[in-house]
């Protein structure tokens, strides 16, 4: 009787060791609870599991694929996300249409574009916040470019001009908007990162830096 | 020899001499830079213009974005320099061999046109460059670099020294404790001897002094067994419960990524805001993994030699030498770290844009992580706790004015506006 009890006692640490291995670690996600409630049935963006047999052991539906298989064979590289059809116009709350002037139309953009936002304090304050997120690491908090110590990346990248010196201090709002969208010289295009409305707000703030 | 012949010869020699003289004159004029003034006022003006317009890409003594300008007046003639500075693209398109070579050597980086400069202004800039060329390069950058390495070494030492001290202190303590033990044992032996030698002590007391520790008897005693079993049970139960809590929780998951991107470097050292790359965080459900064009905003110029950056170039089929993109693009297969179960809905824009929550609240000190790991548990209890404790961000939203006032002490928590409703997250 005593011996039997001893064996029982030893089964507890074995169970404990098994449970400890459920923990997530460096390259290990750990054990999942109810895995077929965790994995999306629909095409999930930012996820791709190309192994058709993955999770077959918990599969409960009739399809030939494993429960975890998440991949769209009709897309390039079988990714779940794909680029929208060409010339798709995104809906925007502000009703602003996409900017269509191509990269080489800088002169035209400088002349004809007008900022839909007024140079009010609120717009400039919003522009300042956006500027600190999208521009500051290269152009500096005061727009000094590579010479500005707050431009941590700009100092290393080199060649970032100051907003308040030379011709850059004279360029129009449309010019700034076009350059943010398409880039110019060594500056890359930021149209994919910054929404058009946000670009115009940044323009208002940059214009205050030009006048320094 | 006839006089006529003599005169012809003389005139030939004279002509030859004149020719040589005039040639040497022109070379002398070029070497002396007769056209570049040395007037101090002009140089001062040139300095201002240079600092305001040129320094972002050029330095006199070192290569920055464009070539070092030291002795540029000796490399090219003045009219060429004026033409190139005022509109470099025009000179390159005209097919000028030197200009085209220069353009290709600097991977086709366009020098903006400075056609708004007058010729005098360009000349004054060149006058300043000429004067600076004669000055030795300032040793400032080298000095700061040396300072940088020193301070870096200092910082590393600052982290290293305390832990070394800690070990030393612990070792010291152990030595002291062992010494104390030895001294105590010595005292006991001496006292035992003393008592045994002394006469007139009762036998019972003597027995007590000379008794030996019976280990076997102690282990078999009920009290000891009870003590051991209790400790064992507590440890096992605690391990089992802790183990059960880690099932389905991926806290600490730190996968190796295909490209060794360091948030510590980008977000920490270079202070790039999260939103610069994770562009979806304010406008969509996902914060998004940045596409490679965002990497290329900086990495067209920074760290182009790095092995890790070469992986980006390969993925987007970019040739860093010609700065051209090809068609053979491959997706970069990043490993997803935060996997919320399909049964729960989470939206980044609702939390970051509407709620004004910092990224670090959930993701931890990302700016200190060289390799990102899951910081929070992402369990339901963790969500619920935050919804109970966090105030609704009612700033700039008149809808909430009276609602906030109506709640105790003017504090409107997320739970008060249905933050614990099942269907908020599960549907």
Count of distinct strands of chain A: 0
Helicity level of chain B = 55-70%
Which range does the strand content of chain A fall in?
Answer: under 5%
CATH topology of the largest domain in chain A: Cytochrome Bc1 Complex, Chain D, domain 2
CATH superfamily of the largest domain in chain A: Cytochrome c-like domain
What would CATH call the class of the largest domain in chain A? Mainly Alpha
Q: Give me the CATH architecture of the largest domain in chain A, please.
A: Orthogonal Bundle
- For the record, what CATH class of the domain at 40-135 in chain B applies? Mainly Alpha
The end-to-end span of chain B amounts to 121 Å
Overall structural class of chain A, as computed from helix and strand content, comes to mainly alpha
Q: Specify the overall morphology of chain A.
A: elongated
Order of helices and strands of chain A: HHHHHHH
Low-confidence stretches of chain B: 21-33, 140-159
Q: CATH superfamily assignment of the domain at 40-135 in chain B?
A: Cytochrome c-like domain
Number of helices of chain B: 20
CATH architecture of the domain at 40-135 in chain B: Orthogonal Bundle
Strand content of chain B: under 5%
Count every beta strand of chain B, where a strand is a DSSP E run of 2 or more residues: 2
Q: Strand sequence of the main sheet of chain B, in spatial order?
A: 1-2
Q: Please, what is the average pLDDT of chain B? A: 82
Signal peptide (chain A): 1-26
InterPro entries (chain A): Cyt_c-like_dom, Cyt_c-like_dom_sf
Keywords (chain A): Heme, Iron, Metal-binding, Signal
Protein name (chain A): Cytochrome c domain-containing protein
């Amino acid at each position: 009787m005593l011996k039997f009890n001893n064996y029982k006692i030893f089964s507890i640490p074995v169970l404990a060791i098994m449970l400890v291995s459920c923990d997530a670690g460096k390259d290990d996600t750990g054990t999942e609870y109810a895995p077929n409630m965790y994995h999306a049935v629909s095409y999930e963006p930012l996820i791709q599991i190309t192994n058709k047999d993955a999770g077959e052991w918990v599969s409960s539906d009739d399809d030939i694929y494993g429960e975890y298989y998440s991949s769209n064979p009709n897309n390039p590289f079988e990714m779940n996300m794909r680029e929208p059809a060409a010339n798709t116009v995104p809906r925007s709350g502000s009703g602003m249409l996409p900017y269509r002037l191509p990269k080489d139309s800088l002169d035209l953009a400088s002349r004809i574009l007008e900022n839909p936002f007024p140079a009010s304090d609120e717009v400039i304050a919003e522009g300042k916040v956006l500027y600190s997120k999208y521009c500051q690491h290269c152009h500096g908090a005061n727009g000094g470019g590579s010479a500005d110590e707050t431009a941590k990346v700009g100092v290393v990248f080199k060649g970032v001009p100051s907003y308040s010196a030379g011709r850059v201090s004279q360029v129009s709002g449309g010019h700034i908007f076009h350059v943010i969208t398409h880039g110019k010289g060594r500056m890359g295009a930021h149209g994919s990162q910054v929404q058009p409305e946000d670009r115009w707000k940044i323009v208002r703030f940059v214009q205050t830096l030009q006048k320094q | 020899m006839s006089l006529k012949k003599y005169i012809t010869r003389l005139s030939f020699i004279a002509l030859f001499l004149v020719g040589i003289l005039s040639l040497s004159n022109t070379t002398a004029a070029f070497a002396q830079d007769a056209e570049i003034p040395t007037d101090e006022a002009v140089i001062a003006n040139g300095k201002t213009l240079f600092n305001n317009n040129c320094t972002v890409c050029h330095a006199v003594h070192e290569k920055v974005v464009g070539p070092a300008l030291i002795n540029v007046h000796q490399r090219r003639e003045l009219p060429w320099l004026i033409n190139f500075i005022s509109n470099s693209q025009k000179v390159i398109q005209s097919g000028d061999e030197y200009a085209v070579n220069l353009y290709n050597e600097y991977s086709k980086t366009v020098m903006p046109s400075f056609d708004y400069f007058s010729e005098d202004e360009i000349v004054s800039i060149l006058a300043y460059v000429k004067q600076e060329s004669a000055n030795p390069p300032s040793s400032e950058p080298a000095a700061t670099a040396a300072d940088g390495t020193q301070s870096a070494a200092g910082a590393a030492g600052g982290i290293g020294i305390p832990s070394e001290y800690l070990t030393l202190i612990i070792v010291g303590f152990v030595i002291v404790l062992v010494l104390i033990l030895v001294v105590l044992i010595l005292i006991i032996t001496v006292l035992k001897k003393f008592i045994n030698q002394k006469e007139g002590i009762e036998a019972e007391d003597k027995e007590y002094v000379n008794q030996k520790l019976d280990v076997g008897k102690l282990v078999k005693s009920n009290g000891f067994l009870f003590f051991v079993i209790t400790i064992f049970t507590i440890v096992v139960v605690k391990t089992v419960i802790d183990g059960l809590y880690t099932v389905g929780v991926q806290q600490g998951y730190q996968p190796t990524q295909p490209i060794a991107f360091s948030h510590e470097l980008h977000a920490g050292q270079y202070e790039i805001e999260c939103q610069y790359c994770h562009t979806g965080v304010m406008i969509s459900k996902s914060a998004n993994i940045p596409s490679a064009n965002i990497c290329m905003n900086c990495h067209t110029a920074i760290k182009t030699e790095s092995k890790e950056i070469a992986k980006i170039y390969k993925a987007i089929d970019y040739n860093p030498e010609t700065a051209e993109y090809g068609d053979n693009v491959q997706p970069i297969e990043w490993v997803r770290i935060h996997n919320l179960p399909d049964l729960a809905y989470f939206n980044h824009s609702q939390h970051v844009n509407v709620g004004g929550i910092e990224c670090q609240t959930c993701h931890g000190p990302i700016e200190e992580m060289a390799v990102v790991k899951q910081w929070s548990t992402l369990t339901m209890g963790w969500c619920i706790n935050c919804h109970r404790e966090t105030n609704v961000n009612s700033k700039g939203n008149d809808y909430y004015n009276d609602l906030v006032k109506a709640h105790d002490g003017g504090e409107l928590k997320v739970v008060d506006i249905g933050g614990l409703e099942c269907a908020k997250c599960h549907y």
